[in-house]
Amino acid sequence: MLSETLAICALVAVIGIDVRTIGGTLISRPLVIAPLTGWMLGDLKTGFMVAYFIELVWVGMLPVGASLPVEALPVTVIATFIASHMAADRTFSEAIIMFAIMISIPFGFVSRWLESHIRGLNSKLSEMLEDQFSGERLPDIALVQYANIGLSFAKVFLVCFLPIYFGYNVINRIYGSLPVNITEGLSTAFYIVPLVGIAVVLDLFLLKKQLLYLFSAFCLAFLLFFVFKLSPFIVLAIGVMGGLIALKYLYKEDTIV
Amino acid sequence: MFRLFLLEASWNYEKLQNIGFAYTILPIAKRLYEDFDGRKEFMKRHLRFFNTHPAMASFITGVVINLEERMRLGEAIKPEDIENIKNSMMGPLAGIGDNFFWEYLRPFTALVGVAIIMLCRDNYAMAWPGPLVAIFLYNTLGLAVRYIGVVRGYEMGVEIVPYIGKLNLRSLNEKISLMSLIILGSAFPAIFVLNNIHLLPPSLPVLDGAAKSLSMFGLAFLMMAGLKLKITPTVIFYGVIAITVISTYIR
After folding, report:
1. Which residues of A touch B98 (CB under 8 A)?
2. Using 50, 70 and 90 to split pLDDT, how confident is the model at A60?
3. Torsion sign across C-alpha atoms B213, B219, B224, B227
4. Is the ipTM here above 0.85?
5. Model confidence over A166-222: pLDDT tens digits?
6. Quick check: is A64 in a domain?
7. Fewer CB in a 10 Å sphere around the end CB: N or C, chain A?
8. Average pLDDT in the A230-236 region?
9. Judgement on whether residues A101 and A169 belong to the same structural domain of the protein
10. Does residue A165 sit in the same domain as residue A150?
11. Which of A26, A141, A194 has the CB atom closest to B134's CB atom?
């Protein structure tokens, strides 16, 4: 388990540099990380499940200015790892996924706390660079950048590795000792919790004047899916086409530039 | 331009992205100034407070390179002018960039990816297009903006300011949000098919499914109301789990 854990944490930490350092190319989002971790563990199913659970929940928290969002990356990795190992130890149940995610969320806060300290350190580095102007040498700006990339790697690596490697057995045993009622409740939650992500998206996007389109898309899809029994992909394709047509007619006059 | 990706690496609380910006622009210092003092002054100028959206910083980079070159070639531009232009561009660009990339584009691409994964839940091996589509959508736009930013900024110089002012991002944002709502609406009934809960007798599978779908739709609105009341998603997440667990003891 050690080599596997090390490999995954190292890979994820490299990708994790993207979170803040590379300015977000989205490869560090749970949507990508969870299937990747799952794939490395040979358990794609768990990976994709964790992906859609975590991705949307914090998509609304923006790294604007000085505010730091909860870091979804460690949450995703820890949850995927724990869930797929627990699922390998016993028969699969939806409750395993829910339990793994529940346990992992606090580490997102740990990671955020670390990040704020790294930023404090950067303030000192910035001062140091400016002091160097009085000296004979030019300040080494590139070196500070590389040091920060290293720090960011170390942060993600540690936050992912420590809980997985030292915590997995404990977490596994806790889950094993849960009463049936709790696991049953967790299984039910499995089907309802993705709604939190949907609600976050609605909260971000819903304008009053667009409410009508949401309802009409929903009603149309509802009809097609339940009455005409079309495949969900065809329903989605019809929806997208309808959306494009609506865009064309609604914003005929507007140009982007 | 590649260096722009590292803009936020040394983010700090005092001057925000100053180190990142200086790093981005470092090769220009080496090209324009052979002597030590020239490079030193150049670095000093660009190690001041800097904060904007990472992709939109490309416009500023382009303009600054343009001005620095012209100053070096002897045109009447003072270092203070460059500083002022940088400062005047940072704020509006940060507003545009944060708004477009983070509040609209990122949730939109995430939603598309998640919708594809959730629709593939019978066979997860088919779900790969989800993440791939999301990465592709987001990064082609991000890269395009970075490229256009540096090139246009460099070509147009200060003239870029009115050009950015004319960008009609509001309508683009509305288009994105409309599209997201339509995708959400059309994927919703198929996504929330609950297997282990029955509202109506299982002998009526279609009606049962429809009733569950409708009630889930209502529940999503209820949660949205919670978010509007500034309850964080994390709290709602744990709240739902708590309620479902407690409900098993009541039954």
Report:
1. 62, 64
2. low
3. negative
4. no
5. 888 888 888 888 888 888 888 888 888 888 888 888 887 777 777 777 777 777 777
6. yes
7. C
8. 75
9. yes
10. yes
11. A26
A21: Cβ–Cβ under 8 A, 6 or more apart, which residues? A148, A149, A152, B5, B6, B8, B9
Tokens of A9: 């944490």
Entry pTM: 0.79
Q: What is the dihedral angle through the alpha carbons of A205, A208, A213, A219, rounded to the nearest 10 degrees? A: 100
Query: What residue of A is the nearest CA neighbor of B207?
Result: A226
Q: Which domain holds residue A28?
A: 2-201
- A84 and A26 assigned to the same domain: yes
Give just the sign of the alpha carbon dihedral B178, B180, B183, B189: negative
Chain B residues whose beta carbon lies within 8 Å of the beta carbon of residue A61: 233
Query: How many angstroms separate the CA of residue A166 from the nearest CA in chain B?
Result: 24
User: Is A143 found in the same domain as A60?
Assistant: yes
The residue among A121, A130, A112, A110 whose CA lies nearest residue A148 is A121
pLDDT tens-digit readout, B24-60? 767 766 666 667 676 776 776 777 677 777 777 777 7
Looking at residue B10, what is its pLDDT? Answer: 46
The alpha carbon of B42 is separated from its chain's Cα centroid by a whole number of angstroms, namely 31
Residue with tokens 């012209």: B70
Tell me whether residue A256 is in a domain.
Answer: no
* Residue A257 counted as domain residue: no
Nearest to A30 by CA among A62, A90, A73, A70: A73
The residue to which tokens 């180190």 are assigned: B19
B22, B178, B224: residue with CB nearest A203: B224
- Please count the structural domains in chain A: 2
Contact: A27, B183; criterion CB under 8 Å: no
